[in-house]
């Protein structure tokens, strides 16, 4: 039985197709017409009671099935009308007699009005709405996806909720796209009904006159009843389905069913009912107007409006009283508030990233004031996740009255890490070093990269660009500074919760690898240190599978996280090469063999790890040479890269981090063979 029910739609469609071929007796055709009317009523009522369109996601397919069903009934009824002298069942005869009322002309006019209302008004409107809704839904998909990513990264929703919302967005786009095409079936059905009606009437009259045995008036009466009845019995369900189509494509911003929404929203405006009743009373003054009907209706509207107005006033008073009670229940002083020990814990919560701004910068960051700072941060979060494989936590925004009006502060885990100053009504013009002219402005230093710059007024923007300045708006200055701070300190922002999320993502694709490595070979704490080491030097951690596979290969014998990091870096050599090479080559500064031997001999180990012990004069000599090379090669190397042997790399990186942290230190094993290495300098003793 269950199998039959599961395949009932398939059987129904096959039966519909057979109805087009096999003649049906009148009593069976009557049953099919009744089923058609019942289905159309069910579909219309369903569209009125759903809250959102996706609750009736099968509607486009159902629309096609019901259209095919109606057309098959039209074919069957036409066959009976033309072959049985207009006898096509009791349903058609009843509809035709009831509408015609003995007057064929009036009956045809009523039928044509119904068809035209459906075709021109309802079907045409539904088709247009479906087309526009489908287009807008597709255009809005990227923004909705970004909003979900923002809510997920800020912790407002869980991964399961985000997955469910993404699925709904995709289903919604598919639904409205299908509705855009399905409305064409309704339009075609309306056109076909007019054609079938003409065929039934003209063909029936011709056949009746050719067969003889009846006068022209009798033939006209017989086939007009059958034609109008057949047209109505198919067009009334079609009209209901068209109305249902319009209902479902206009279900926007609804919180409940159509009945509940309509009642609730009309009740919320009782003055509208009262004013409408008064307008009706004024209309009753017009001579010849039916006063009893107008007076009854206006009295009802004024009565309902007055009752609803009193009810609304009582509800508002109750809400106000409830609010006052809730306010009375709150502590009146700060000391009383902090008597509750749970409230004290709110004081020690620390946000991973926090930005405080002066009051002049509030319009830049506040969405209510038109600022799109949050949108820019969301875009950066998405870009950073795609580039580095890590999701940046949400940024907490606060206004700080103790800051200068144009000043902002960036905090990391509650401590200030950077600050800057922005002139909101100005543009920042950066000097790239090859200017063809000078522009007057307020001299400053670009906060993210330390580039000499000037603040210029808006009217000087175009001339500054002509002279070769790089001109950026104040919001871009703020976002760029924040993004650079996040890049530099990404390793500090990688929390244990973020690590769990990364592991969960890998587990979906390679569960056996995760179960083998974590925590069997490496603990979550050590894995977090390894990933932090990579992020600290700007190495993406997107390829988590390769990272875990490398740890699986070496983790059993190597327990030092620094050494494991070196092995992971070597496994990620394609990623590292792609990040630091340009045009198939990589320009570097190398270390001489003597310096590398010196560093290896200077390695000392204790319980806490390894460190270098080099004489201060020699250390100063190495660093001075490196800085001289960096200054000489600025035009050829945007980012200074030092190339060493694998064993020396990590120690030299720690050494250099104290004097020039922006330099990149790579080993030979971290560069892919497809890239040409070009040594621009060599540091020697």
From TrEMBL:
Transmembrane parts of this sequence: 6-24, 31-50, 56-73, 104-122, 190-212, 232-250, 271-289
One GO CC annotation: plasma membrane
Gene3D superfamilies named among the record's database cross-references: FHIPEP family, domain 1 (3.40.30.60), FHIPEP family, domain 3 (1.10.8.540), FHIPEP family, domain 4 (3.40.50.12790)
Any Pfam family the entry gives: FHIPEP
Membrane topology term: Multi-pass membrane protein
Location of the protein in the cell: Cell membrane
Record keywords: Bacterial flagellum biogenesis, Bacterial flagellum protein export, Cell membrane, Cell projection, Cilium, Flagellum, Membrane, Protein transport, Transmembrane, Transmembrane helix, Transport
GO biological process: one example: bacterial-type flagellum assembly
Domain of life of the organism encoding this protein: Bacteria
InterPro entries: FHIPEP_1, FHIPEP_3, FHIPEP_4, FlhA, T3SS_FHIPEP
Main function: Required for formation of the rod structure of the flagellar apparatus. Together with FliI and FliH, may constitute the export apparatus of flagellin.
Family statement drawn from the similarity comment of this UniProt entry: Belongs to the FHIPEP (flagella/HR/invasion proteins export pore) family.
Name this protein carries in UniProt: Flagellar biosynthesis protein FlhA
Species, as recorded: Sedimentibacter hydroxybenzoicus DSM 7310
């Amino acid at each position: 039985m269950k199998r039959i029910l599961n395949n009932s739609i398939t059987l129904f469609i096959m039966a519909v197709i057979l109805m087009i071929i096999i003649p049906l007796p009148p009593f069976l055709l009557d049953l099919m017409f009744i089923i058609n009317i019942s289905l159309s009523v069910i579909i219309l009522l369903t569209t009125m009671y759903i809250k959102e369109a996706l609750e009736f996601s099968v509607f486009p397919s159902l629309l096609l099935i019901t259209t095919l069903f109606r057309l098959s009934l039209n074919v069957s009824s036409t066959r009976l009308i033309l072959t049985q002298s207009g006898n096509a069942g009791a349903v058609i005869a009843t509809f035709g007699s009831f509408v015609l009322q003995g007057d064929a002309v009036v009956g045809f006019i009523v039928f044509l009005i119904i068809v035209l209302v459906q075709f021109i008004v309802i079907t045409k409107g539904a088709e247009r709405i479906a087309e526009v809704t489908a287009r807008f839904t597709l255009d809005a998909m990227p923004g909705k996806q970004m909003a979900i990513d923002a809510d997920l990264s800020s912790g407002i929703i869980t991964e399961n909720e985000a997955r469910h919302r993404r699925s709904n967005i995709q289903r919604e786009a598919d639904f409205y796209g299908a509705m855009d095409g399905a409305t064409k079936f309704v339009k075609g059905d309306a056109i076909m009904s007019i054609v079938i009606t003409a065929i039934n009437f003209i063909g029936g009259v011709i056949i009746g006159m050719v067969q003889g045995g009846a006068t022209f008036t009798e033939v006209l009466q017989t086939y007009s009843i059958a034609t109008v009845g057949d047209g109505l019995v198919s067009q009334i369900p079609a009209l209901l389905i068209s109305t249902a189509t319009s209902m479902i494509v206009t279900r926007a911003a609804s919180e409940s069913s159509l009945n509940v929404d309509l009642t609730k929203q009309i009740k919320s405006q009782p003055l509208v009912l009262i004013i409408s009743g008064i307008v009706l009373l004024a209309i009753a003054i017009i001579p010849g107007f039916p006063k009893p009907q107008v007076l009854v209706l206006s009295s009802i509207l004024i009565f309902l409006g007055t009752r609803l107005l009193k009810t609304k006033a009582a509800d508002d008073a109750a809400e106000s009283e409830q609010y006052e009670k809730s306010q009375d229940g709150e502590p009146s002083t700060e000391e009383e508030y902090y008597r509750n020990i749970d409230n004290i814990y709110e004081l020690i919560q620390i946000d991973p990233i926090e930005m405080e701004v002066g009051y002049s910068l509030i319009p830049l960051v506040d969405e209510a004031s038109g600022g799109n700072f949050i949108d820019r941060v969301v875009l950066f979060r998405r870009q950073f996740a795609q580039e580095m494989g890590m999701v940046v936590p949400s940024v907490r925004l606060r206004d700080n009255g103790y800051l200068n009006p144009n000043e902002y502060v960036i905090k990391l885990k509650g401590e200030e890490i950077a600050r800057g100053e922005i002139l909101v009504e100005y543009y920042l013009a950066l000097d790239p070093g090859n200017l063809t002219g000078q522009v007057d402005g307020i001299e400053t230093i670009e906060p993210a990269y330390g580039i000499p710059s000037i603040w210029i007024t808006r009217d000087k923007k175009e001339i500054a660009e002509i002279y070769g300045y790089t001109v950026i708006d104040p919001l871009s200055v703020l976002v760029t500074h924040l993004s650079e701070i996040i890049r530099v300190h990404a390793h500090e922002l990688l929390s244990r919760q973020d690590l769990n999320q990364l592991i969960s993502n890998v587990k979906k694709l390679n569960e056996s690898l995760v179960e083998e490595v974590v925590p069997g070979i490496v603990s979550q704490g050590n894995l977090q240190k390894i990933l932090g080491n990579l992020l600290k030097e700007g190495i993406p951690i997107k390829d988590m599978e390769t990272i875990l596979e490398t740890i699986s290969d070496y983790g059993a014998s190597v327990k030092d996280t620094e050494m494991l990091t070196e092995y992971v870096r070597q496994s990620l050599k394609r990623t590292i090469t792609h990040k630091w090479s340009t045009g198939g080559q990589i320009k570097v500064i190398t270390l001489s063999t003597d310096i590398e031997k010196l560093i290896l001999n200077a390695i000392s180990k204790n319980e806490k790890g390894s460190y270098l012990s080099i004489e201060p004069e020699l250390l100063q000599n190495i660093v001075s040479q490196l800085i001289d090379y960096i200054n000489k090669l600025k035009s050829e190397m945007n980012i200074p890269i030092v190339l060493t042997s694998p064993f020396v790399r990590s120690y030299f990186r720690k050494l250099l981090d104290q004097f020039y942290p922006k330099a990149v230190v790579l080993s030979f094993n971290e560069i892919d063979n497809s890239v040409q290495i070009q040594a621009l300098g060599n540091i020697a003793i």
